[in-house]
Predict the structure.
Amino acid sequence: MGFQDALYRLNLPYTSAEAVEFADVAMEQISYFAIRASAALAGERGAYETYEGSLWHQGILPIDSINLLKEARQDGDLSLNTSSRLDWTAVRELIARNGMRNSNVMAIAPTATISNIVGVSQSIEPAYQNLFVKSNLSGEFTVVNPSLVRDLKAEGLWDNVMVNDLKYFDGSVQQIDRIPAALKARYATAFEIDARWLVEAAARRQKWLDQAQSLNLYMAEPSGKKLDELYQLAWERGLKTTYYLRSLGATGAEKTAPVAAPQPQVCSIDEPDCEACQ
């Protein structure tokens, strides 16, 4: 989790070749050390019960399975960058010597709840919104993407007018003229980016994963043609699966004058289960 936050730190928009490259590099590192750790554990505790005859036993790592998939398709229709940067020889030798402790090593989960607890962006998702409301028994709190606030401050653009503009546009920066184009690209939200970029980044991760990944796709105005092209691309890139396809509702909230916020409830120190104190 935290992929979007990492892109913010690197000053990269999700919709860029550099972000796709980062997805590839990061996942190779995770894959390398996860597989190596499982093989090391096998040396201490033994391989899993059905290791014999498995792909691991045959010396087939996730990156090798791409070739198997290509051979399985009669027309060989698989277009994917299969380059690597690390020396996998030592890992292959360790597996051949010890086996694998785990039959399955890697999958990317949604992490919707635990990422909130940790305080990072969820899973491999693009930011859903730059502004949202958190609620508890103490009331409602408007939260702005802290990375966006940092960058707006660096540009000298963070003021009360900007706060009101962000509220008016529900956190979107695309219609605020004084925000530079580079920041608009970096802080485009899930429904504002081309879903094909999500597929491209996911495909580069997939070649390092022995399982699959929770890949939500976002499309503001879906159509049969768009869906056909998107899922065709996922197939051509060798993705094992996708997760939800999310779209926007047909209507949006009307912009009106703000209404008075409800008075927050008082927190009692005698109530140990108060949600506001969690």
